[in-house]
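Open question from group meeting: does this chain pack into something compact, or does most of it stay loose? Before anyone orders reagents, we agreed to write out a predicted structure and look at it together. Recording both the input and the output here so the notebook holds the full record.
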Amino acid sequence: MSAAAMLAGHLNPATSSAWQALLRHADRQKETGFRVAGAFALDPERASRFSIDAAGLTLDYSKQRIDTQTMQLLLALAAERNVAGRRDAMFAGEKVNTTEHRAVLHVALREPAVGARQHIVDGIDVVPAVHVELARMRAFSQQVRAGAWRGRTGQAITDVVNIGIGGSDLGPQMVCEALRRDIHPRLRTHFVSNVDGGDLDRVLARLDAATTLFIVSSKTFTTQETIMNARRAREWFLASGAQQADVGQHFVAVTTNLPAAGAFGIASTNCFRFWDWVGGRYSLWSAVGLSVMIAIGGDAFAGLLAGAHAMDEHFVTAPLASNMPCVLALVGIWNGNFLGASSLCVAPYAQDLRRLPAYLQQLEMESNGKSVALDGTPLATTSGSAIWGEPGSNGQHAYFQLLHQGTGLMAVDFIASLALTGTSTEHHRVLLANCFAQSEALMCGKSADTVRAEMRATGMAEAEIEALVPHRTFTGNRPSNTILLPELSPCSLGALIALYEHKVFVQGVIWGINSFDQWGVELGKQLAKTIDTELAAGAVTGVHDASTQALMQRAIAAMADRR
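Structure tokens returned:
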């Protein structure tokens, strides 16, 4: 597919007939006062009608403000925007990242070696190269896990520190947290990303240099935050009595810049590769996941890949009407673009998934936070959602008040494991009860009549009842999905992550944007270099606005006081 063909038809989606039909449908829903609770009363099959099972996961989207016509119209939009065609182009290795002229093939990273689907980039199937690198990762991780990889004093590695940022940090950290029960008992895994020196100081204070392995993860080996942290880690290591020649036993790199890694002290044999057709926020499955493989082992990492691949196969083969990523994307479009939902709350009812909202923040907001279409024209529709959340039931005692009674509409994705994530059956039962209750409460709300009846049953005076009714009433009709995992395992986690990856892709196609570049990240980095030079010199010499200049002068004065 040529670039011109890919761009064709990607003008503003708001001009499409399907989009206009959805606008009229949303207006009719508002006029008729459509309520999800009422729809359940009228349709005993609603829960099964609006549920999908795929790759071991269950998506229940029946508590969304939808009916059969809504879904028909959303599917017509997906067809009109050529979701299936763009999906197939991505899987075929077409350069769907048009602004960087790159293929987008993170799906190739979890393609099995046997019976594999070909993924062609510039005429070459990349799957064999992927498995060569996976084999190198497995061999190295086995050495570390078995204690065969020794530090400079001959001791086995006890601590692994992943130094990266963005996709080189959020994914591995989230997975290691989620699969903590699978981590090798001798190994502790740490993550350093923030350029705030206190982050690295906190980690180093707990480590023994003789038994610590650092993984420096940067495609270019020039990422400012990562390289600053890596250099300070090396200084700390050398200060322990080590020599420069010892660096190679304690530092490995995930990069494509072998000369820069070599200059740092890392031999090419200790550098692990990934490719320019793998975006940072989609790179967990590549060598960026080396810290994960060391932590949980090669077999568990293979399970992670297998779960993701199962979702890939579902995504590429299932009809759009029963395609879990597509449906998840479409109800998100419905909530954000037609019902006015301002954000998406991700509420995992599993403490081990506490880093999932942060991971999805980057995945969704960096991917789809765009203001122009593929052809460069301004968007007239909202793209992307603000993603936020914390684990339940903690969130219930923090931000759920806003979800239930706030004036703005916010959608929620509830995520839960059916199998225990701890050791207590009672705890898990109560956890699930709270998860299911919150989605029910958001949907049903509580009417003024119900509130009055409850207070009258306590003997409360009528005047007090009427004063309290507005405060105790819940409007309900607030949309949510529930995603169930059979258990929190490598396989189910892989499927869950891939589900959201493909959801993001589908939404990008519908909005007509490029979900795989991130030019908005670069401007701040460029300006920071200039400002840092001036801060280091102790003088504001460049042209800045009055606010930035004043802030810089305060910082210069504070730094001078510390000298």
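Observations to bring back to the group:
The first strand starts at residue 51 and ends at 54.
The radius of gyration is 26 Å.
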